[in-house]
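Researcher: I've been going back and forth with a colleague about how Energy-coupling factor transporter transmembrane protein EcfT might be arranged in three dimensions. Neither of us has a model we trust, so I'd like an independent prediction. The organism is Arthrobacter oryzae, in case that matters for your notes. Sequence below.
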Amino acid sequence: MSGHGFLLANYAPGASAVHRAPLWLKFLLVLGCGMASFLVVNWLVAAGVLGLLCAVFLASGAGTVRLFRAVRPALPVLLAIGVFQWWQIGAPDAARIVLNVLVCIVAASILTATTPVQRLLDGVASLAGPFRRFGADPERFALTIAIMLRSIPFIAGAFADVRDSARARGLERNPRALVLPVFITTVAFARQTGEALAARGLGDAEDQDS
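Model: Here is an independent structure prediction for Energy-coupling factor transporter transmembrane protein EcfT. You can compare it with whatever you and your colleague have in mind.
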């Protein structure tokens, strides 16, 4: 299976100020950008915020290539959304919507590109800690996030590989040739993941023992 990126930038080791920033501050950045995407009504403001976030990303030393790889998968969808919204509500609002989505992607990429995965998962577990009193398991929640982060690129890569194979055989317009192999690969990956978790005493086996 060839490697494929999916939306968020991979971690880039470094010692920049962005890398050293507290994890809670980076979480707030992502949360704030997500909330701002509902509040910003001017595309110029959205463009300014996007430019600032891109500057922060590049200041971390993560590089333009990593930033482009983080944004690239969303570009076809954003182009379609932009054209449709331009037709429906006009160019300024269409630009605002697309730019706000890019703001969220870049903000999340700053978090993932400057934070080791284990530290990120530990932070997620800490944030979920207060919900322990309601029966939540912060460690299991962090494990779920880890599996999701591993699964999404795998599934995206499986689809890309199957699509390339179908195109080489002239079957790119055949939904069955695309969907069925991806479905089989995904099920196999899920079974392997479940067996690995069970072998480590996690998942259903742990629930039954308890």
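Researcher: What would you highlight for our discussion?
Model: I'd start with this: The CA atoms of residues 7 and 73 lie 6 Å apart. After that, consider the following. Residues 1-115 form one domain.
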